[in-house]
Amino acid sequence: MNKQEQAEFLIEAMPYIKKYFNKILVVKYGGNAMIDDELKSSVMRDLVVLNLLGIKVVLVHGGGPEISQTIKQMGKETRFVNGLRYTDEETAEIVRMVLAGKVNKSLTDLICRHGGKAIGICGQDGHLIRCEKQDESLGFVGKITSINTEIITDLLGLGYVPVISTVGYDDEGNIYNVNADTAAASIAGALKAESLILMTDIRGLLENKDDPESLIKKVYVSDVPALVKQGIISGGMIPKIECCKDAIRRGVKKVFITDGRVSHSILIEILSDEGSGTMFI
Description:
alpha/beta, two-stranded antiparallel ribbon, 14 strands, globular
């Protein structure tokens, strides 16, 4: 961008900055979108920019590839049941070690190094994410029963970006592996966030899954059943769309699915007329 284009972008962004000022934006970040270190650094820098603009950013992250790599290094095998990682007690401890330790602290450090303020927490801290077993066949995969937002709102009030790893708990002291999309939707709903962004490794919802140019830019929740029937929403996209619907039912105004592999996709989505992914309302 030349100087003129930069100035025009800021002018275009003004109404969006005003709209989101002092509002909560929840960003889910994880999976393959986290693998590239340069891109990861760029995403964290974008979150700092939004925070400096007065937007209350909450980052919820997963880390499936890191978990799989660590499990392999420890001589265990990863087993999936209906697309979800089977989690025995030992695997649950590995999930906590990787997510709440390595991944969480790495992202928190990146935000701080880019001039932001961030504190890393997991779902056990402040008893944030209470769970029960989703299904006995999955082991300690958590179904969320409640979200305690107090620790999040306290951190936001102090100007920090809460960086939340999706490790849950129950009253018996068990640790749960919680799907990051599901956790982000529940947290955004409990916070009555202005928007939720799900960063993934596709452009958004495509009318033709083999044509990246067939992006559907806006979807009403009421249209979802018809899109499923037509086969436009299928496979692994179904649970992601269910998270979008769940967040909106819980009071989130807009949910975006955007491509985490594209630099500055969050800024483009939030601060421009065009956007970059699919918006659910």
